[in-house]
């Protein structure tokens, strides 16, 4: 069975009548990210493409400026706990490349804490990633077809209904990479890691996510320098504000021929 899902015996109730059967659910495991031996983050993810996830995290959280700063990314092969097997990624930076461990830990807290205000979050994002200067243009009809294309590349969702997806599209609407995960931000990091490994220029591309658009996703798009971020559901208010501040095009409710453009609308054309 795929690492992306697991089977469980369940009780299904139909009209109050119980039936025993097997149900497939999305697999979720913690992944610890270590940099030069220091633990910097634990993310809950769907196993698979872990190295891409780590590389994308390094870039979108601005731990490194480029993959040229990274000497190696690999799974830990020796763990003290069998439960940790396959769930630790070790990153080694190139000699002489420094990173701010405390800043990274503070930023991870700010991303999940209700006590951090929107203004502070915006200032932090602007400090990490400057506004985009990208003249990319995408025709609306190309973007409107993107959700159907992405859905065809979601095998784990097809059997579990329990994971999100992110897709990378050209401006002509071609899907060139898709990744699934229990977390939208993880799926985006996997895409960014895939792009970085191939030294793919982010200009002239668009990201589509299968759910809502949060401020973390806008921040990651800006850090990766992808000019267009769209979702099939709604953006949050902070996502819109961040899109405006970082000049990232934020599109929501991409459904059929309809969509709402909340920030940097000049990139979506007829």
Task: Give an overview of the whole structure.
This protein has 270 residues and is α/β, with parallel strands linked by helices. It folds into two domains: 30-128, Ubiquitin-like (UB roll); 138-269, 3-Layer(aba) Sandwich (Cytidine Deaminase, domain 2), CATH 3.40.140. It contains nine helices and 14 strands. The strands form four sheets. Strands 9-8-10-11-12-13 form a six-stranded mixed beta sheet. Helix 1 crosses helix 7, helix 3 runs parallel beside helix 9 and helix 7 (184-197) packs parallel to helix 8. The longest helix has 14 residues, at 184-197. The radius of gyration is 19 Å and the shape is globular.
Number of domains: 2
Rounded mean pLDDT is 89
- Biggest sheet statistics: 6 strands, mixed
Order of helices and strands: EEEEHEEHHEHHHEEHEHEHEEE
Describe what is shown at a glance.
With 270 residues, the chain is α/β, with parallel strands linked by helices.
What are the main properties of this structure?
six-stranded mixed sheet, 2 domains, four-stranded mixed sheet, alpha/beta, Cytidine Deaminase, domain 2, 9 helices, about 270 residues, Ubiquitin-like (UB roll)
Per-chain topology:
Layout: E1 5-14, E2 17-26, E3 29-35, E4 38-45, H1 50-60, E5 70-75, E6 88-93, H2 101-112, H3 118-128, E7 138-139, H4 140-144, H5 146-151, H6 155-160, E8 164-170, E9 175-181, H7 184-197, E10 205-209, H8 215-224, E11 228-231, H9 237-246, E12 249-255, E13 258-263, E14 268-269
Helix pairs in contact: 1-7, 3-9, 7-8, 8-9
């Amino acid at each position: 069975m795929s690492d992306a899902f697991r089977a469980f015996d369940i009780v299904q109730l139909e009209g109050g009548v119980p039936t025993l059967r097997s149900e497939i659910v999305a697999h979720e495991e913690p992944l610890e990210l270590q940099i030069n031996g220091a633990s910097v983050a634990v993310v809950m993810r769907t196993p698979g493409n872990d190295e891409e996830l780590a590389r994308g995290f390094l870039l979108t959280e601005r731990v490194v400026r480029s993959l040229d700063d990274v000497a190696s990314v690999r799974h830990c092969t020796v763990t003290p706990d069998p439960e940790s097997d396959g769930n630790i990624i070790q990153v080694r930076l190139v000699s002489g490349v420094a990173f701010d461990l405390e800043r990274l830990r503070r930023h991870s807290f700010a991303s999940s804490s209700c006590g951090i205000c929107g203004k502070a979050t915006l200032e932090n994002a602007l400090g990490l990633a400057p506004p985009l200067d990208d003249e990319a243009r995408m025709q609306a009809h190309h973007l409107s077809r993107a959700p159907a294309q992405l859905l065809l590349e979601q095998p784990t969702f097809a059997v579990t209904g329990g994971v999100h997806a992110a897709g990378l599209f050209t401006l002509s609407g071609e899907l060139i990479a898709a990744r699934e995960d229990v977390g939208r931000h993880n799926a985006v990091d996997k895409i960014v890691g895939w792009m970085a490994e191939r030294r793919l220029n982010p200009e002239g591309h668009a990201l589509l996510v299968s759910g809502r658009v949060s401020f973390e996703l806008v921040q990651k798009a800006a850090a990766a320098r992808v000019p267009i971020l769209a979702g099939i559901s709604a953006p949050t208010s902070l996502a819109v504000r961040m899109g405006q501040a970082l000049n990232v095009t934020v599109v929501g409710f991409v459904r059929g021929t309809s969509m709402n453009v909340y920030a940097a609308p000049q990139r979506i054309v007829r």
